[in-house]
Amino acid sequence: MSIKKKNAFIAQTAIIAAMYAALTYAQTIILPGSTTMAVQFRVSEALNVLALFTPAAIPGLTLGCVVSNLASIGQGLPLDMIFGSLATLGSVTCMYFLREVKVGKYPLLAMLMPAIWNGVVIGWEIEYFFIEGKFEFVGFLTQGGCVALGELGVMAVLGTALYFVIIKNNLHKTIIKKPQ
Q1: Are 147 and 118 contacting, i.e. CB atoms less than 8 angstroms apart?
Q2: Residue 177 and residue 112: Cα distance in Å, rounded?
Q3: Which residues neighbour 4 within 8 Å (Cβ) at sequence distance 6 or greater?
Q4: First-residue to last-residue Cα distance in the chain
Q5: Which tens digits make up the pLDDT trace of 80-138?
């Protein structure tokens, strides 16, 4: 990879991370708790769509999640920084590799990845670390289902809208393209 490509990749990664963190912090200020509750609707998660257009979104979104979850440490949720970021890494990596699998012109399977990954990883985190007593599978399904529901809502509404705005305006060919 040439120096120019590396610099472009690093710049895209940094911009995506900053956008994710800024959106999450702004939402936390405006609607406290809406980014960390069991059924959360984290607006910044719509940016996961960027993984369909550039591999720089993978480290960018993961780093953005780490940075935005730093606020969770003060709320007694330091594990969110670890597990939330791992869920983001897994989901956007899968999105990138599934970007060409489409139903019509829509990457349905890729768009489901954030709900699946966050439902499983964060559902497990909540049930294992935050629910007193032994791990219960029904509790895991409940917690994971709540998390997945919020994530599905974000991706179905905001993520889908962002995806079609990017496609319709050819932003994927101009602004959000793979580093050349």
Answers
A1: yes
A2: 22
A3: 179, 180
A4: 9
A5: 788 989 999 999 999 999 999 999 999 999 999 999 999 999 999 888 887 777 889 99
Q: Is residue 179 part of a domain?
A: no
Which pLDDT belongs to residue 134? 84
Answer yes or no: are the C-beta atoms of 76 and 33 closer than 8 Å.
no
Section 33-45 average pLDDT: 81
For residues 161, 6, 90, 25, the Cα torsion angle rounded to the nearest 10 degrees is -60
Q: Which two tokens stand for residue 130?
A: 């935050």
Alpha helices in the chain (DSSP H): 3-30, 57-68, 70-74, 78-97, 108-125, 137-154, 160-168, 171-174
Residue 15 within any structural domain of the chain: yes
Would you say residue 76 lies in a domain? yes
Work out the average pLDDT over 40-50: 93
Nearest to 60 by CA among 12, 105, 97: 12
Q: How many CB atoms lie within 10 A of CB 99?
A: 15
What is the pTM (predicted TM-score) of this model?
0.90
If one counts the domains in the chain, the total is 1
**What's the CATH number where 169 sits?**
1.10.1760
Structural domain range at position 119: 3-174
Query: Which of 152, 123, 55, 67 has its CA nearest to residue 95?
Result: 55
